[in-house]
Structure formats: C-alpha cells, structure tokens
Amino acid sequence: MNGAGLVVSHVSRRFGGVLALNGVSFAVRAGEIKSVIGPNGAGKSTLLNILSGVTAPSSGTVSLDGRRIERLPAHRRVAAGIARTFQNLQLFSDMSVLENVMVGAHTTQRAGFMDALCGSRKSNEDTVRAQAFALDLLAQFGLKSRAHSPAHALSYGEAKLLEIARAMASRPRMLLLDEPLAGLPYGSVKQVAEVVRALNRAGTSIVLVEHNVKAVMQLSDSVVVLANGEFVSEGTPDAIRSDRAVIDAYLGEPADAA
Ligand code: ADP
Ligand code: MG
To answer: How far is the CA of 43 from the centre of ligand 1 (A)?
Structure first.
C-alpha cells in the first residue's frame, strides 16, 4: 500500500475503568466513503475524537498519507487536511451563517495574527477572498440566502448542513462526520446524504459515523463495525449486511433494521 489515506493501527483508549476502544485497526483509502457503525457506547465518537485530535489514544498510531498524526494538536490536523463535524452541533449561535463558515476557513488564511490586528492590506485581501469562498460553499449547500442570518435562526437540518460547510471551509482531504443524519426529518436526510455524496465525488475522503444503517449502506464504499470498543468486522455494505458477527453485535436484529 502506498500510504495514501488514513491508517488506524491498534488504537486503544481508556477512560478510567472503561476501555472505550481496544486495539482497533482499519484503513480509509483516499477517495472512499468509509462508515463506522455500532451500538451506542461502541466507541465511535471516541474514534473520531482520536482522529481529529480532541482526544489522544492511550496506545496505537494514526497516519494520514504516510505521516504519523496521533500526537498532533487538533489545529495542526486541520492544517494536515482533516476536518470534522460534531454529534452535538457546535455552531456559534449568535454569529451569522457566513461568519460560522469563515471561522472554519481561518486556518487556511495566509495573513498572520499581526496583519489582522493592524488591518493590513494583505489581511483585507485575504478576508475578501475567504468571504467569497465561504459564500460559494454556502451556495453549494443551499444556504446562500441564509448567509446573514444568525446561526440560531436556522432549522435543525440547515444547521447540520452549516456544520459540514464550516468543516469544508478548511479544504480538507479527509472529512469526519459524527452522525450527520441524526434527528433530521426525512427530506433533510436525503439532502444531507446528497451533499456527502457530492463532496466525495469532488475528491474528499469521508469517515461517516452514523446510526441510519440504510443511508450508510447506500453511501459507503466500505463499513467498519465496532461494538463495546472492539473491532467486529469490516467489508462492503453487502458483506456487512450478511455478516453473522455484525448481526450478533446488533443483538440479533438484521443490520438493515437497526
Ligand atoms: P459511541 O459514540 O459509539 O456511542 P463513545 O465513543 O461516545 O461511543 O463511548 C464509548 C465508551 O467510552 C462509552 O462507554 C462512554 O461512556 C465512554 N466514554 C467516552 N468518552 C468518555 C469520557 N470523556 N470520559 C469517560 N468515559 C467516556
Ligand atoms: Mg457517539
């Protein structure tokens, strides 16, 4: 393997007496949509926290395109090309929709802090460019008409889209999504799923943590199944659907009814 993509190797994470992840390994090829599914408490959010630098692993390694990243702080992972959304929305509710996206673009702006402080020409040019890029992103997500509304005025579905738009503002190669479809009405599920597919077609690799197994099976190139912090199985959606160990991990329910 040429090292392109994300490689998770023997990752464990302990919280006191709880082993949230126990020696989990898998790889995300550049350009694929890899989903991570499993019952509540499986360790899915902990895994995304480890990939994005919110939490350090107790042991194990994570590489992106051949470079070890498991000890990099979160902001340096964004610079390395990883961005994420959160299971519980983390928008700045009093800031405008546009400003929320521009916060996500911040790490890609060239002007330094002193430039920004002094209002230098370079910083102004960068702000204008960042604003134009943010508006393009909002257009792509169907949110352009909402650009100047406060984030708290958005519907839940629009807010979920805004979180993804904000993550895309750092121009990531690898996008981590924690339950982007959870709590959405049916129409919005379709819309967000289409956005995920479109971002992937445009070249973004995606790690999708999601309980909507039907959507997972439709969107994913491959699926990793976790339960109680343990790796259970990995394979194509068709292989996972008929995998006995997966069905057992979902307590006897067929995987597509979970
Ligand atoms: P999932 O996202 O699959 O539902 P989590 O990764 O949130 O699972 O949690 C996995 C396990 O780790 C759970 O038992 C949870 O209670 C525990 N856990 C997660 N984060 C923490 C934390 N910060 N402190 C203590 N325990 C945690
Ligand atoms: Mg979770």
So the answer is: 6
* Rounded distance from Cα 178 to ligand 2 centre (Å): 7
pLDDT band with cut points at 50, 70 and 90 for residue 139: very high
Spell out the alpha helix ranges (H) of the chain. Answer: 44-52, 74-80, 97-105, 113-118, 121-140, 156-168, 186-201, 213-219, 237-241, 244-249
CB of 249 within 6 A of ligand 1: the answer is no
Give the C-alpha distances (Å, rounded to integers) separating 53 from 46, 56, 191. 10, 6, 29
Phi and psi (nearest 5°) for 16? 55, -120
DSSP class of residue 114 equals H
Residue with tokens 């709880």: 18
Q: In which residue are the tokens 């546009």 written?
A: 98
Q: What is the dihedral of CA 104, 125, 80, 133, to 10 degrees?
A: 50
> Ligand 1 mean position to 242 CA, how many Å?
28
Ligand closest to the CA atom of residue 40 = 1
- Ligand 1, pocket-test mutation among 45, 52, 58, most atoms within 8 A of CB: 45
Ligand 1 lined by 111 (C-beta under 6 Å): no
Closest CA to 100 of 113, 89, 115: 89
| Closest ligand by atom to 46 CA | 1
Residue-range domains of the chain with CATH: 1-81+209-253 (3.40.50.300), 83-171 (3.40.50.300)
Ligand 1 within 6 A of 46 CB? yes
* Mean pLDDT value of segment 105-115: 54
pLDDT digits (tens, 9 = 90+) for 198-236: 999 999 999 999 999 999 999 999 999 999 999 999 999
